Amino acid sequence: DVYKRQVSTQSTWVKGLKSLEESLGKYMEGGTIDKFYCNTCDDRVDITNRIRLSKLPNVLIIHLKRFVYNLDTSSNDKLNSKLKFPKNISMQPYSLDEKNDEAYYKYKLAGVVVHVGTADVGHYYSYISANRKSMG
Question: What span, in angstroms and rounded, lies between the C-alpha atoms of 44 and 61?
Fold first, then answer.
């Protein structure tokens, strides 16, 4: 696909969420900034600040933020909660691109990297799709 870049990594939250789509939606929904100074209108206005992907890559790596800092213990904790993720996903709701080609937004799961251990120590291993030809 000539209009996609090669590789991009997107980080997203896990804590309190049930699925990858929910996580991406939460991460990209943004928030309100009260009394933001606007140079154009020379006034303080309320704005919504949010994240959208400007260009979709050929390969999209989604990093789940499973390590959080615990203020009570002054240490890092690992989140071991279950997060459902699909074998296929459309990134259209998270993109600024306006293509008429549905296939442009579609991604197929190619692999998963798993961490076993705590926030301080552990090992990583991966599951990779053995049928790479059908990956598109």
Answer: 38
